Amino acid sequence: MKRGKLFVVATPIGNLEDITFRAVEILKDVAFVLAEDTRQSKKLFDRYEIKTSLISYRDQNHDRMMGKILEKLDMGLDLALISDAGTPLISDPGYRLVKDLREKEYEVFSIPGASAVISALSTSGLPTDKFVFLGFLPKSDKKRETLLSKYFELENTIVLYESPQRLVKLLTLIQKEFGEVDVFLAKDISKMREESFFGNCNTVLEILKDRDFENNPHGEFVCVFSKKV
């Protein structure tokens, strides 16, 4: 019997209409869907009348779930993997699963779609020919500075995620240590409160200060930086 396939399916990052026809069909056709948070994913499934069973899959239960996943694939059943929002594995669960399946020579296919990283970069107005995605930075200021310094020296545009509670601290660090850096911040992409900020670190810090952002942090931020050379 031919073994089943895993489809890594991108889902909306905000607006539920930001999903491809193919993604919806795949989610309807597979035997079951591995989801980061089944309660969150059910909103999407209800919107598109997807009846497929949702199974909780996270890094924490990978070892326990792997045997069941292999059993289903060996029965010839196709499965799908989704995260809460956007493209799975991009700072979301799934790497161990895809790695293990690749090593065991199972087929894994991408069903492309929304990605906060690419959405922010493509609208940033900063160089897009060379960029690096750093995910969430370490909490230590020293480790942050070391990592940022390494990639600024390569003249890459840097894309990363940052929590609202640490955003002002990050911008202050970059302004102090790296001088003239252009910055683009994308907040709540494709959601009702979508907003973006563009300028150098000082300009953006002043905007956030005027909004009393440090005392009222909110939103999910993708940060894009490009050092002037």
Summarize the structure.
The protein is an alpha/beta fold and 229 residues long. The protein folds into two domains: 109 residues, Cobalt-precorrin-4 Transmethylase, domain 1 (3-Layer(aba) Sandwich); 111 residues, Methyltransferase, Cobalt-precorrin-4 Transmethylase, Domain 2 (2-Layer Sandwich), CATH 3.30.950.
Describe this structure in words.
The chain is an alpha/beta fold and 229 residues long. It has two domains: 6-114, Tetrapyrrole methylase, N-terminal domain (Cobalt-precorrin-4 Transmethylase, domain 1), CATH 3.40.1010; 117-227, Tetrapyrrole methylase, C-terminal domain (Methyltransferase, Cobalt-precorrin-4 Transmethylase, Domain 2, 2-Layer Sandwich). The protein is built from eight helices and ten strands. It has helices at residues 21-29, 38-47, 62-74, 95-103, 116-122, 141-153, 164-178, 201-210, and strands spanning 6-9, 32-35, 53-56, 79-82, 108-111, 131-136, 157-162, 181-187, 195-200, 221-227. It has a five-stranded parallel beta sheet with strand order 3-2-4-1-5, with helices on both faces. A five-stranded mixed beta sheet has the order 6-7-10-8-9, with helices on both faces. Helix 6 links the parallel strand 6 and strand 7. Helix 6 crosses helix 7 and helix 7 (164-178) runs antiparallel to helix 8. It is elongated, with a radius of gyration of 20 Å. The mean pLDDT is 95.
